[in-house]
Amino acid sequence: MIGDIRNIVILTGAGVSAESGLATFRGPDGLWEGHRVEDVCTSEALARDVELVHRFYDERRAKLIEVTPNAAHEALAALDRAWGGELLIVTQNVDDLHERAGAKRLIHMHGELKSALCAACGKAVAWPGPLPPASVCDGCSRPSLRPDIVFFGEMPYEMERIDAALRDADLFVSIGTSGAVYPAAGFVQTARHVGARTLELNLDPSAGSFYFEESRMGPASKLVPDLVQELLG
Ligand code: OAD
Questions:
Q1: Residue 230 CA, ligand 1 centroid: distance in Å
Q2: In angstroms, how far is CA 104 from the centroid of its own chain?
Q3: Which of 6, 45, 66, 105 could form a disulfide with 85, with the two C-beta atoms 3.0–4.6 Å apart?
Q4: To test ligand 1's pocket by mutation, which of 24, 29, 110, 226 has the most ligand atoms within 8 angstroms of CB?
Q5: Active site residue 193
Q6: Residue 119: C-alpha distances to residues 37, 141, 209, 223 (Å)
Q7: With a 6 A CB cut-off, is 203 part of the ligand 1 pocket?
Q8: Which residue in 73, 98, 108, 110 is the catalytic one?
């Protein structure tokens, strides 16, 4: 599997943060911290119950203080530091554990908990604490700040950069994601199309497992350090 590889794209999902103590989106009860994803992750939900949606993300943001990166985040950060070729870590996660472990070549395609987005002018601003509804944007002075989370139906961030990296990739690795949400779930098909090797690391087979040349099943805290060791020789 590994050999003759220069350019790597790594996609991560909630499974990479599960062992740090953050709930995945589609747990056994199908709920994300007691809520249906559709009730807290759509612009309709925000319009219907702004207090609920802001409170939900305030709680998720506050929880970040209680958790730390695990061995999978640490190993990916080590790979980022050491890898001489192109590398892009694309995370669907809105937590900050990859960057706290030290990863630099990182894109948060679904937004970030520690950021607020102005629904009026589109300016994003670092936001470490609670975000009351109607908080004022310092760019346009309107009371339009919302959580900087890509809701269902909205375009994920940096798709052009991600697509370019996928088209140059020799290896695409998907870690801890159920493959239920597009466009991320389709990255493996782009990677295959350009001839990249494709590898899935997950606790259970995902919805798109059959697209991957190789699937390794187990906890990310074990599989990811092993893979990084393999890649760095
Ligand atoms: P999911 O909750 O859908 O899937 C998590 C995956 O991680 C599952 O396939 C689990 O088997 C796997 N998993 C759990 N624990 C693991 C472990 N210790 N090691 C390895 N794998 C493990 O989460 P995502 O696929 O990330 O979007 O969800 C995708 C998107 O759906 C999220 O980014 C979110 C949500 O709607 C937004 O917030 C915009």
A1: 24
A2: 14
A3: 6
A4: 24
A5: no
A6: 20, 12, 36, 39
A7: yes
A8: 110
Threshold 0.85, pTM exceeds: yes
Q: What are phi and psi of 216, to 5 degrees?
A: -115, 125
Q: Which atom of ligand 1 is nearest to the CA of 25?
A: 2
The length of the chain is 233
